Amino acid sequence: MRILLLIICTALSSALFSQRNKSMNKDTLSDWCITFSPSALVNEFSGLQFGVEKRLSPRWLTELEIAYIFPQDISSNVEELSKEGYRVKLGFKRQRYKNLHFLWNFYFRRTQHNYRSTFNRFGGLFRQIIDYSGTKTLIGPTFGCAWDLPFGKRFRVELGASTGFGIYIRSQEDLPIDTDEFFFGGGDWFSFSNSGEDLYPILALHAKFKMKVN
What we know:
The protein has 214 residues and is mainly beta. The chain is built from 1 helix and 10 strands, in the order αββββββββββ. The protein is elongated.
Protein backbone atom coordinates (compact mmCIF):
# COMPACT_ATOMS: atom_id res chain seq x y z
CA MET A 1 0.00 0.00 0.00
CA ARG A 2 2.92 2.35 0.72
CA ILE A 3 4.24 1.78 -2.82
CA LEU A 4 0.84 2.73 -4.27
CA LEU A 5 0.68 5.96 -2.21
CA LEU A 6 4.23 6.88 -3.22
CA ILE A 7 3.39 6.45 -6.92
CA ILE A 8 0.24 8.58 -6.58
CA CYS A 9 2.11 11.37 -4.77
CA THR A 10 4.90 11.31 -7.35
CA ALA A 11 2.43 11.55 -10.25
CA LEU A 12 0.54 14.46 -8.65
CA SER A 13 3.77 16.33 -7.85
CA SER A 14 4.97 15.90 -11.42
CA ALA A 15 1.67 17.21 -12.77
CA LEU A 16 1.74 20.31 -10.57
CA PHE A 17 5.36 21.05 -11.44
CA SER A 18 4.68 20.75 -15.16
CA GLN A 19 1.65 23.01 -14.98
CA ARG A 20 3.78 25.74 -13.41
CA ASN A 21 6.48 25.49 -16.05
CA LYS A 22 5.45 28.29 -18.41
CA SER A 23 8.45 27.98 -20.68
CA MET A 24 7.00 24.98 -22.49
CA ASN A 25 4.89 25.12 -25.63
CA LYS A 26 1.30 24.84 -24.43
CA ASP A 27 -0.01 23.10 -27.54
CA THR A 28 2.50 20.22 -27.31
CA LEU A 29 4.46 19.84 -24.08
CA SER A 30 1.68 20.86 -21.67
CA ASP A 31 -0.96 18.52 -23.04
CA TRP A 32 -2.51 16.66 -20.07
CA CYS A 33 -5.36 14.12 -20.13
CA ILE A 34 -7.24 12.27 -17.42
CA THR A 35 -8.04 8.69 -18.41
CA PHE A 36 -10.63 6.13 -17.32
CA SER A 37 -10.56 2.49 -18.46
CA PRO A 38 -13.98 0.75 -18.44
CA SER A 39 -12.27 -2.39 -19.78
CA ALA A 40 -10.71 -2.85 -16.31
CA LEU A 41 -14.19 -3.59 -14.95
CA VAL A 42 -14.41 -6.80 -17.02
CA ASN A 43 -10.79 -7.86 -16.48
CA GLU A 44 -9.95 -11.21 -14.87
CA PHE A 45 -8.69 -9.00 -12.03
CA SER A 46 -11.54 -6.51 -12.33
CA GLY A 47 -11.17 -3.10 -10.76
CA LEU A 48 -11.53 0.66 -11.03
CA GLN A 49 -8.75 2.17 -13.15
CA PHE A 50 -7.85 5.84 -13.65
CA GLY A 51 -4.72 7.54 -14.94
CA VAL A 52 -3.03 10.59 -16.38
CA GLU A 53 -1.43 11.06 -19.80
CA LYS A 54 1.17 13.70 -20.66
CA ARG A 55 2.44 14.73 -24.09
CA LEU A 56 6.22 15.09 -23.97
CA SER A 57 6.76 16.16 -27.58
CA PRO A 58 4.78 16.24 -30.84
CA ARG A 59 5.22 12.45 -31.17
CA TRP A 60 5.95 11.11 -27.65
CA LEU A 61 3.58 10.69 -24.72
CA THR A 62 3.77 9.08 -21.29
CA GLU A 63 1.01 7.76 -19.03
CA LEU A 64 0.54 6.43 -15.53
CA GLU A 65 -2.51 4.31 -14.62
CA ILE A 66 -3.51 2.91 -11.24
CA ALA A 67 -6.26 0.35 -10.64
CA TYR A 68 -7.86 -0.80 -7.42
CA ILE A 69 -8.77 -4.48 -7.82
CA PHE A 70 -12.08 -5.14 -6.10
CA PRO A 71 -12.38 -7.90 -3.49
CA GLN A 72 -13.73 -10.80 -5.53
CA ASP A 73 -15.31 -13.99 -4.26
CA ILE A 74 -14.31 -17.04 -6.29
CA SER A 75 -17.21 -19.47 -6.63
CA SER A 76 -15.80 -21.62 -9.45
CA ASN A 77 -12.72 -22.72 -7.50
CA VAL A 78 -13.41 -24.45 -4.18
CA GLU A 79 -9.84 -23.92 -2.96
CA GLU A 80 -9.47 -20.20 -3.77
CA LEU A 81 -12.04 -18.17 -1.84
CA SER A 82 -11.28 -14.55 -2.76
CA LYS A 83 -8.70 -12.11 -4.12
CA GLU A 84 -8.06 -8.35 -4.12
CA GLY A 85 -5.19 -5.94 -4.75
CA TYR A 86 -3.97 -3.18 -7.04
CA ARG A 87 -2.31 -2.70 -10.42
CA VAL A 88 0.04 0.02 -11.75
CA LYS A 89 1.01 0.65 -15.37
CA LEU A 90 3.69 3.07 -16.53
CA GLY A 91 3.78 3.53 -20.29
CA PHE A 92 5.32 5.42 -23.19
CA LYS A 93 3.67 6.03 -26.56
CA ARG A 94 5.03 7.06 -29.92
CA GLN A 95 2.62 8.46 -32.46
CA ARG A 96 3.34 6.73 -35.76
CA TYR A 97 0.45 8.04 -37.84
CA LYS A 98 -2.38 10.44 -37.08
CA ASN A 99 -4.28 7.99 -34.87
CA LEU A 100 -1.89 5.01 -34.47
CA HIS A 101 0.46 4.79 -31.50
CA PHE A 102 3.10 2.23 -30.53
CA LEU A 103 3.11 1.32 -26.82
CA TRP A 104 5.83 0.35 -24.36
CA ASN A 105 4.40 -0.47 -20.93
CA PHE A 106 5.68 -1.68 -17.58
CA TYR A 107 3.17 -3.60 -15.44
CA PHE A 108 3.11 -4.12 -11.70
CA ARG A 109 0.25 -6.08 -10.11
CA ARG A 110 0.01 -7.31 -6.52
CA THR A 111 -2.92 -9.38 -5.29
CA GLN A 112 -3.82 -11.04 -2.00
CA HIS A 113 -5.50 -14.47 -2.30
CA ASN A 114 -7.40 -16.38 0.38
CA TYR A 115 -7.63 -20.18 0.23
CA ARG A 116 -9.34 -23.07 2.01
CA SER A 117 -8.05 -26.59 1.50
CA THR A 118 -8.83 -30.05 2.83
CA PHE A 119 -5.97 -32.54 3.24
CA ASN A 120 -5.42 -36.07 4.51
CA ARG A 121 -2.58 -37.30 6.68
CA PHE A 122 -1.33 -40.73 7.71
CA GLY A 123 -3.09 -42.63 4.95
CA GLY A 124 -6.41 -40.88 5.43
CA LEU A 125 -6.62 -41.38 9.20
CA PHE A 126 -6.65 -37.66 9.81
CA ARG A 127 -8.44 -34.98 7.81
CA GLN A 128 -8.39 -31.22 8.33
CA ILE A 129 -9.62 -28.04 6.65
CA ILE A 130 -7.32 -25.03 6.87
CA ASP A 131 -7.55 -21.42 5.71
CA TYR A 132 -4.43 -19.66 4.48
CA SER A 133 -3.47 -16.71 2.29
CA GLY A 134 -0.98 -15.98 -0.45
CA THR A 135 0.44 -12.98 -2.26
CA LYS A 136 1.08 -12.90 -6.02
CA THR A 137 3.12 -10.17 -7.70
CA LEU A 138 3.40 -9.76 -11.47
CA ILE A 139 6.16 -7.53 -12.88
CA GLY A 140 6.97 -7.21 -16.57
CA PRO A 141 7.21 -5.15 -19.77
CA THR A 142 4.88 -5.28 -22.78
CA PHE A 143 4.83 -3.91 -26.31
CA GLY A 144 1.75 -3.14 -28.41
CA CYS A 145 -0.23 -0.56 -30.32
CA ALA A 146 -3.32 1.60 -29.83
CA TRP A 147 -5.82 3.43 -32.02
CA ASP A 148 -6.77 6.87 -30.72
CA LEU A 149 -9.96 8.61 -31.94
CA PRO A 150 -11.00 12.20 -31.10
CA PHE A 151 -14.53 13.16 -30.05
CA GLY A 152 -14.74 16.93 -30.08
CA LYS A 153 -11.96 19.15 -28.74
CA ARG A 154 -11.57 17.64 -25.26
CA PHE A 155 -12.50 13.95 -25.47
CA ARG A 156 -10.83 10.92 -27.05
CA VAL A 157 -11.35 7.14 -27.10
CA GLU A 158 -8.43 4.72 -27.23
CA LEU A 159 -8.49 1.01 -28.14
CA GLY A 160 -5.30 -1.00 -27.79
CA ALA A 161 -3.53 -4.29 -27.17
CA SER A 162 -0.11 -5.24 -25.83
CA THR A 163 1.77 -8.41 -24.94
CA GLY A 164 4.98 -9.47 -23.25
CA PHE A 165 6.43 -11.66 -20.49
CA GLY A 166 6.72 -10.97 -16.77
CA ILE A 167 7.92 -12.55 -13.55
CA TYR A 168 5.18 -13.98 -11.31
CA ILE A 169 6.33 -14.03 -7.68
CA ARG A 170 4.31 -16.25 -5.29
CA SER A 171 4.44 -16.31 -1.51
CA GLN A 172 2.17 -17.90 1.10
CA GLU A 173 1.25 -16.87 4.63
CA ASP A 174 -0.73 -18.00 7.71
CA LEU A 175 0.27 -21.66 7.37
CA PRO A 176 0.71 -24.06 10.31
CA ILE A 177 4.35 -24.81 11.01
CA ASP A 178 4.06 -28.53 10.24
CA THR A 179 2.17 -28.21 6.93
CA ASP A 180 5.08 -28.76 4.57
CA GLU A 181 3.60 -31.54 2.48
CA PHE A 182 0.34 -33.48 2.54
CA PHE A 183 -1.53 -36.06 0.50
CA PHE A 184 -4.79 -34.62 -0.82
CA GLY A 185 -7.93 -36.65 -1.37
CA GLY A 186 -7.56 -36.01 -5.10
CA GLY A 187 -4.47 -38.21 -5.18
CA ASP A 188 -1.77 -35.57 -5.75
CA TRP A 189 1.06 -34.44 -3.56
CA PHE A 190 0.81 -30.80 -2.72
CA SER A 191 3.38 -28.58 -1.04
CA PHE A 192 2.28 -25.53 0.89
CA SER A 193 5.82 -24.22 0.54
CA ASN A 194 5.45 -23.73 -3.22
CA SER A 195 6.47 -20.07 -3.04
CA GLY A 196 8.68 -19.10 -5.94
CA GLU A 197 8.92 -17.33 -9.28
CA ASP A 198 7.55 -18.21 -12.73
CA LEU A 199 7.85 -16.70 -16.21
CA TYR A 200 4.32 -15.55 -17.05
CA PRO A 201 2.83 -14.35 -20.39
CA ILE A 202 1.03 -10.99 -20.34
CA LEU A 203 -1.79 -10.18 -22.75
CA ALA A 204 -3.59 -6.88 -22.24
CA LEU A 205 -6.57 -5.47 -24.15
CA HIS A 206 -7.85 -2.05 -23.18
CA ALA A 207 -10.48 0.55 -23.96
CA LYS A 208 -10.23 3.95 -22.31
CA PHE A 209 -11.84 7.36 -22.33
CA LYS A 210 -9.55 10.41 -22.21
CA MET A 211 -10.42 14.00 -21.31
CA LYS A 212 -8.03 16.88 -21.98
CA VAL A 213 -7.65 19.11 -18.93
CA ASN A 214 -5.64 22.03 -20.36
